[in-house]
Design goal:
The protein has one domain. About 0% of the residues lie in helices and about 45% in strands. The chain has no helices and twelve strands. It comes from Cochliobolus carbonum (strain 26-R-13).
């Protein structure tokens, strides 16, 4: 089974410009529900479109962000990468378990949350 997330991204911006994450992000999950994006604050984030199968591994991006995937029992995956001259990343690559009721992508002061669309 594949788990698909359509591109989540914001374009490049000048120093005077803030680009907001835009469009909806959908994930096709086992229960076939759609997931969409909630934006708390504007920021510049780049997260390429991905297709995941259980057992696939996430790698760290080149931007400051964290990806957290929760299941009903708690956090199953969390990846942190901070660009400050230092890279923080749990193991550099983390296995995808298939549990994805909620996504949260954090970049500095923004949290982007993927939640079920009922």
């Amino acid at each position: 089974m594949k788990f698909t997330a359509v591109a989540l991204f914001a374009g490049l911006a000048s120093a005077q410009q803030v680009v907001t994450l835009f469009d909806a992000v959908y994930s096709v999950v086992e229960d076939a529900r759609s997931y969409q994006i909630d934006i708390d604050l504007p920021t510049i984030v780049n997260c390429a479109a991905e297709e995941w199968a259980i057992g696939d591994r996430f790698t760290c991006s080149d931007a400051s962000w964290a990806l957290q995937i929760n299941d009903e029992y708690g956090v199953s995956i969390r990846i942190d990468h901070i660009v400050d001259g230092v890279t923080y990343c749990a193991d550099a690559a983390i296995e995808f378990t298939g549990s994805i009721p909620v996504y949260q992508i954090q970049a500095s002061n923004i949290t982007v949350t993927l939640e079920p669309v009922y």
